[in-house]
Amino acid sequence: MQYAVSSNPVPDRSDAYCLLPSAYSPRGFTLVETLVAITLVTVAMLGPFQVVQKALAASYAARDQLIASSLAEEAIEYVRSVRDRNYLYNVNHASSPRSWFYSMDGTGNDGNCLAPRGCIVDPTQNSISQCGTFNGKPLCPALNLSGTHIYTQANPSGSKPTRFTRYVTLTSVSATEMTVTVTVTWETGRVPYTVTVVDTLHNWL
Question: What does the alpha-carbon distance between residue 118 and residue 131 come to, in Å, rounded to a whole number?
């Protein structure tokens, strides 16, 4: 019988097997490593969160400022309509004319809007009423938002109070010229804001 003998001896792999337990044994994170990782992640996310928060606050303030500007312009237009209405009345009642800012200058029964007083106007109700005063400044009630999304001084069913307060102040420049100032105040994120619109109206008669 003949036996074939290989010239390449089989390598001894005993040393490889002795490395397996240490090479593949699982190793967990220590408490310090975990805390450091959490701290790094928190610091990394804090910046973006602050940026988003400031962006949201700025967008809310811009939204409210747009609403306040529209409310101020609405009041200016209403005051102008009062002037025009009195003009038309005097044209049709030449024998018994009334002041060109009747119902807003204290000559009517609605309110006296002449500075330093102030009054509130409500175009939806076609009404003018007197504001109170506090420390020499007008103290007026806040506007309400009706169920049909209309800002009004009235309190219809389903309306909700808003953060906006609007009042009108008239300053007489001459017998034929009046400065109209509309002030809208509100708070966004507990920060007070004010929008003021000033217009000058003249007596056409």
Answer: 6
Q: Is 58 left (phi over 0), alpha (psi -120 to 50) or beta?
A: alpha
> Would you say 121 and 110 are in contact if contact means Cβ atoms under 8 Å apart?
no
> To which residue do tokens 């029964």 refer?
109
* The pair of three-digit structure tokens given for residue 126, joined into one six-digit string: 């076609």
By C-alpha distance, which of 102, 126, 111, 117 is closest to 170? 117
Lookup: tokens for 128: 């003018």
Rounded CA-CA distance 131/105 in Å is 13
- Tell me how crowded residue 105 is: count the other CB atoms within 10 A of its CB: 18
The first and second tokens of residue 134, run together, are: 């506090």
Residues 132 and 138 sit within 8 Å (Cβ to Cβ): yes
pTM value is: 0.74
**Sign of the dihedral through C-alpha 17, 19, 23, 26:** positive
Strands 144-145 and 151-152: antiparallel
pLDDT by 10s per residue, the chain, length 205: 444 445 555 555 555 445 445 555 556 667 777 787 787 777 777 777 677 677 777 888 999 999 999 999 999 999 999 999 999 999 999 999 999 999 999 888 778 899 888 899 999 999 999 888 777 777 899 999 999 999 999 988 889 999 999 999 999 999 999 999 999 999 998 899 999 999 999 997 7
DSSP letter, residue 125: T
